[in-house]
Specification:
heterodimer, A: 330 residues, alpha/beta, Rossmann fold, 4-stranded antiparallel β-sheet, 12 strands, globular, B: 335 residues, 2 domains, 11 helices
């Protein structure tokens, strides 16, 4: 018997209306997330990579039900969270938290640190002040700040310290799942390493699961157990982190990896060949969404959308090239 | 013959703030040879952007003020020029590309006009000639159907396309020096790769010098031939590409390189910890005695906190601002 996964996402869809449609005419819609399914185990870090507009942030918010999906299911600990009422959802949110990219705009500038990090508690239960302060004191220490910092306002901190405050706030309700949306992208390299290590330590200590969203492939590869690559609202590849950069199976993943400038002058980057931009979501291409940019595209790719299938053990790919032949991409 | 196109000597730029004087650029000197690409790297607030803005006289003043130094471009000290003469160089001999193409393009002017403008100002081309040349350049930077897009506005273009427009605008007068400040930081990685290779092509075509300002060591490794590393307003290390990446001397440079996760290093199982540089940069308004990196440095010892090190020569072409040069046995193992 397989245990119930912490999170099970099935065929999740999110459509956004594209303005217009005020007088009864149904507006055009874009599918930001287009039928995404995956599961997340306890203490697992699930990396989500892709370029702007691929739907990774929308997916992260759907999973926490911060926005309502247009279709599909989200189960948390075996419970369908989409059927929960507002009150029940509020209680559950303590167990599923989010860390945002921008440590400047995600903290209320008029609240002191102790109030910021215990706000998730206040939302659901009325703890006496002294008890709240104890929780806050323990949390700031866990994230590497000092007790004296509790009495300060966000503007007194650097970007890295603010991100630590955001992490303390997420930890406050003793969550099982944290969605981290580009948590280190706004930070300098030396500070980025501190925050990544902190997230790793906290994961081990509190048995956390992360959905780690980032456009930075090296960071995601470093921190994740499994990595999903999104393109145009769908997962095109899902691989164990150890396979991700060494044996990519989707031409898009291969192109992404090749585009990363390596911090090594002896590593000669080939002239980059993939041309063009991501297609417009208003007018999606038929078949595989990647085919207009894909140098391997076949007739079939233009007509029929490939599904995510297991190519080798635990390594899934949505590409006709992998149709049972284990094709190598270079 | 190594003809220097740009020589910066002892540049000091201070910002006069309510909290005190911030020494944003504190005695920076470097030069750039014709046709060379120099990478200027460092983290936020290290002074790399202020240095580049000083070259073109674009430091916001007040609160900024260039307190001392010399910026020699060809035969002139740019700091001596009045606004009018500087304007004649800006956009013609020296061009600049910024990070955010959306805010550096004029949102209410069609892109054709914007690309043509430097030609009308600096080369006195007629409007129609300038527009024809602009179209040729937009085509050159690989904007599809360039001629038909002359009338497009910036918001109609994607981020990558806007950065191409910026590049075309910088190139129309065939500058001798291009200053690119984080030119691809706002772009997705596949678009970044396209823009970087475009910049390399144009650079060799025009035989231009490139001052590339970035926080991304990957971009530097792929683009530059020489690297200047800045920390808290000062140069802490400079050298050739392999000096910096294979045998860097300064503990800050070493720490930066070690703290980056690298693609392809992941093995199954536990995630390894990344190397950390503890703490954070001190405020630029603080008066620091001694080395500015000492409070974060794993190797710091007594003299580091008492006396500021100079840029010592490590080997031909490589310099580091670090006392370890004279006290090599103070370096901790594995450092």
């Amino acid at each position: 018997m397989a245990e119930v996964p912490l999170l099970k996402v099935s065929k999740l869809v999110k459509e956004f209306p594209l303005g217009g449609g005020l007088f009864g005419k149904s507006p055009a819609r874009v599918r930001a997330v287009d039928g995404v399914s995956f599961t997340l185990s306890r203490s697992e870090t699930f990396g989500l990579v892709g370029e702007s507009g691929c739907g990774k942030t929308t997916l992260g918010r759907l999973v926490l039900r911060l926005i309502e999906p247009s279709g599909g299911d989200v189960e948390f600990n075996g419970q369908n969270i989409l059927s929960l009422g507002t009150k029940e959802m509020q209680v559950l949110r303590r167990r599923m938290q989010i860390i945002f990219q921008d440590p400047y705009s995600s903290l209320d500038p008029r609240m002191k640190v102790d109030a910021i990090i215990t706000e998730p508690l206040r939302a659901v239960q009325n703890l006496p002040k002294t008890q709240r302060q104890e929780v806050a004191a323990a949390l700031v220490e866990k994230v590497g700040l000092r007790a004296a910092d509790l009495d300060k306002y966000p503007h007194e901190f650097s970007g890295g310290q603010r991100q630590r405050i955001g992490i303390a706030r997420a930890l406050c309700g003793r969550p099982e799942l944290i969605v981290a949306d580009e948590p280190v992208s706004a930070l300098d390299v030396s500070i980025q390493a501190q925050v990544i290590n902190l997230m790793g330590d906290l994961k081990n200590e509190f048995n956390l699961s992360y959905i780690f969203i980032s456009h930075d492939l090296s960071v995601v590869e470093h921190i994740s157990d499994r990595i999903a690559v999104m393109y145009f609202g769908t997962i095109v590849e899902l691989a164990p982190a150890a396979n991700f950069s060494t044996s990519p199976r989707h031409p898009y993943t291969a192109a992404l990896l090749k585009a990363v400038p390596m911090p090594d002058p002896h590593h000669q980057t080939d002239p980059f060949r993939m041309q063009g931009d991501v297609p417009s979501p208003i007018d999606p291409p038929p078949g595989c969404a990647f085919h207009p940019r894909c140098s391997h595209a076949l007739e079939r790719c233009r007509a029929q959308r490939p599904l995510l299938v297991e190519a080798t053990s635990q390594h899934f790919v949505a590409c006709w090239l992998n149709d049972g032949r284990g094709l190598r991409i270079d | 013959m190594s003809s220097k196109i740009l020589e910066i000597e002892n540049l000091c730029v201070h910002f006069h703030l309510p909290e005190g004087i911030a020494r944003a650029v504190d005695g920076v000197s470097f030069d750039l040879a014709a046709g060379e690409t120099l990478g200027l790297v460092g983290e936020s607030g290290c002074g790399k952007s202020v240095t580049s803005l000083s070259i073109l006289g674009l430091v916001p003043s007040p609160p900024g003020r260039i307190e001392a130094g010399r910026i020699q471009f060809e035969e002139r000290n740019l700091l001596d020029l009045d606004a009018e003469r500087l304007r004649r160089i800006r956009g013609r001999d020296i061009a600049m590309i910024f990070q955010e193409p959306m805010t550096s393009l004029n949102p209410v002017l069609p892109i054709g006009r914007q690309v043509a403008e430097p030609l009308m100002i600096h080369k006195a081309l007629s409007r129609s000639d300038a527009l024809a040349e602009a179209a040729a350049w937009l085509d050159h930077v690989k904007i599809p159907a360039a001629r038909r897009r002359l009338g497009d506005y910036p918001h109609q273009l994607s981020g990558g396309m806007r950065q191409r427009v910026m590049i075309a605008m910088a190139m129309v007068c065939r500058p001798k020096l291009l200053i690119a400040d984080e030119p691809t930081t706002a772009l997705d990685v596949t678009i970044q790769a396209q823009i970087l290779s475009l910049m390399l092509e144009l650079k060799s075509e025009l035989n231009m010098s490139l001052l590339l300002i970035t926080h991304d060591l990957g971009v530097v490794a792929q683009m530059a031939s020489r690297v200047v590393v800045m920390y808290a307003g000062q140069i802490v290390e400079e050298g050739g590409l392999t000096d910096i990446f294979d045998r860097s001397f300064h503990p800050y440079t070493r720490g930066l390189l070690k703290s980056m996760p690298r693609l392809g290093n992941r093995r199954a199982g536990q995630t390894p910890r990344l190397h950390e540089i503890p703490g954070s940069v001190h405020s630029l308004t603080d008066a620091v005695i001694g080395c500015k990196f000492a409070d974060r440095c794993p190797d710091a010892f007594d003299i580091c906190k008492q006396q500021q090190p100079e840029l010592f020569e490590i080997r031909a072409g490589q310099h580091a601002r670090c006392w370890l040069k004279h006290y090599p046995d103070r370096r901790k193992q594995g450092g």
